[in-house]
């Protein structure tokens, strides 16, 4: 059996390569398409991304829950899930075909996407039943295979999106390229899932579907509400602002891919072990694994957050040209979510089988976010949408999660999140941050401040991973050793 560290490494590398491909696609699109065409492309896929959690019915998380302990109907569980998600994909396609495209175009204040949304009909029917391929492969101890497939899929879809765009430079052909590649990769995903499961009792059953849906439905609704909450800023901006402003906002109003690269990979592997620990009535072991996700993730994510906060303007100008420099503000605001994104609350809640709480928390958070988004966008413009999301996450989601996990694991509130570990990691970045900020004020415009900041960040990284900057007292001892205080 593959070790936990090897699984995390494989998934991290795969997620990193996939993220780089996604960034490359965004860079090319920002440089080739007009703002209104970029907005149309993003709004078309935003429509599917918004409903993906509900038509997926939380089956991916259901696979994590059932497959690790299933003995008799392993492939049957898989086919149960595919039958359900396939039906939901057809339902979404039917909605689009019978007027849903026009309705969404009106809601997004962009008539141009009505025809583009018709391409989502075959996309939803064919790709939806295989969207949980990663969950199945990891649950079946094929993390490396999941990472390789994920990377190949992103590379193929990315290339199929970029190449037609560079040749014909139209948003329609860009969507078609993405569609064709995604459909082809869906057939490969199907084969991988079938090969990873033994041909035991392989027919889907009503009892199996009922059990899977009963467990997964609260997670599906929670996923929908959670996705709506995170996508709500884009939906509100799309509805209340012109397409050109939405293009600027949506380009960098995102959580950096590092979350998926690091936290996502660690969580995917640890979730199976947490489920087994809970099943064996070892809550402290499950809590240890849960805290370990945050501790390991924060070592990478928090220093990168500081670097990006300081250099957002320069990086956006280099990647997307100065036309999109206004994207720096929502990008910086989204970075404020990174400290709490190192803590994957849902992992331990799902492992404990408390899926109904996830639903209640997500629905309440969605309502709070909706009210704040409308108020803040009216008051502050499109950046107010991010402020609403950040406020909702910290003031509601985090507090509710801590209370519930504390009760589930029978531990004090302070033990849920490794705050001390996260704080010391942030404190250790102070010398690098000070050097970078001084460089910006001293060197002025140009690439000089970015080069200086990058050099300081790389130096910090080398020292940090050698164990010199882990605790504030170690930082003090290290600087004294360099005679800086003599």
TrEMBL record:
Membrane topology: Multi-pass membrane protein
Transmembrane stretches, start-end: 12-33, 45-66, 78-98, 118-139, 146-167, 173-194, 206-226, 246-272, 299-325, 331-354, 366-385, 391-409, 421-442, 448-465
Domain of life (superkingdom): Bacteria
Keywords for the protein's UniProt record, in alphabetical order: Cell membrane, Membrane, Transmembrane, Transmembrane helix
Coiled-coil positions: none
Claim: Membrane is one of the keywords in the record: yes
Subcellular location: Cell membrane
One Pfam entry name: Polysacc_synt_3
InterPro entries: Poly_Biosynth_Transport
Protein name as annotated: Oligosaccharide flippase family protein
Organism: Rhodopirellula halodulae
């Amino acid at each position: 059996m593959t070790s936990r560290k090897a699984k995390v490494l494989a998934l991290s590398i795969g997620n990193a390569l996939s993220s780089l491909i996604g960034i490359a696609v965004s860079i090319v699109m920002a440089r080739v398409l007009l703002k209104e065409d970029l907005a149309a492309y993003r709004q078309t896929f935003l429509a599917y991304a918004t409903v993906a959690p509900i038509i997926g019915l939380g089956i991916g998380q259901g696979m994590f829950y059932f497959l690790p302990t299933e003995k008799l109907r392993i492939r049957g569980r898989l086919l149960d899930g595919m039958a359900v998600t396939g039906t939901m994909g057809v339902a979404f396609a039917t909605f689009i075909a019978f007027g849903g495209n026009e309705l969404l175009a009106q809601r997004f204040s962009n008539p141009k996407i009505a025809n583009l949304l018709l391409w989502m009909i075959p996309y939803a029917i064919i790709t939806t039943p295989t969207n949980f391929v990663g969950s199945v492969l990891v649950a079946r101890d094929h993390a490396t295979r999941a990472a390789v497939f994920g990377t190949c899929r992103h590379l193929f879809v990315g290339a199929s999106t970029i190449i037609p765009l560079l040749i014909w430079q139209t948003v329609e052909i860009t969507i078609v390229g993405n569609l064709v590649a995604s459909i082809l990769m869906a057939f490969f995903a199907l084969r991988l899932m079938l090969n990873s499961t033994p041909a035991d009792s392989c027919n889907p059953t009503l009892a199996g579907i009922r059990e899977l849906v009963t467990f997964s439905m609260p997670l599906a609704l929670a996923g929908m509400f959670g996705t709506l909450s995170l996508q709500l800023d884009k939906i509100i901006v799309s509805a209340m602002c012109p397409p050109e402003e939405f293009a600027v906002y949506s380009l960098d109003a995102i959580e950096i891919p590092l979350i998926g690269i690091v936290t996502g990979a660690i969580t995917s592997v640890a979730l199976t072990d947490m489920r087994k620990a809970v099943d064996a009535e070892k809550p402290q072991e499950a809590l240890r694994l849960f805290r370990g996700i945050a501790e390991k993730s924060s070592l990478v994510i928090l220093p990168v957050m500081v670097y990006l906060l300081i250099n957002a303007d320069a990086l956006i100008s280099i990647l997307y040209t100065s036309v999109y420099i206004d994207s720096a503000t929502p990008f910086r605001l989204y970075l404020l979510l990174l400290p709490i994104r190192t803590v994957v609350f849902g992992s331990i809640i799902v492992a404990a089988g408390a899926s109904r709480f996830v639903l209640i928390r997500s629905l309440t958070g969605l309502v709070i976010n909706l009210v704040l988004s409308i108020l803040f966008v009216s008051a502050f413009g499109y950046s107010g949408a991010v402020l609403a999301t950040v406020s909702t996450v910290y003031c509601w989601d985090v507090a509710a999660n801590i209370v519930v996990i504390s009760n589930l694991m029978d531990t004090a509130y302070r033990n849920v999140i490794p705050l001390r570990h996260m704080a010391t990691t942030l404190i250790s970045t102070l010398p690098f941050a000070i050097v970078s900020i001084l460089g910006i004020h001293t060197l002025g415009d140009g690439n000089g401040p970015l080069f200086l900041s990058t050099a300081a960040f790389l130096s910090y990284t080398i020292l940090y991973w050698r164990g010199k900057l882990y605790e504030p007292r170690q930082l003090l001892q290290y600087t004294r050793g360099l005679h800086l205080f003599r």
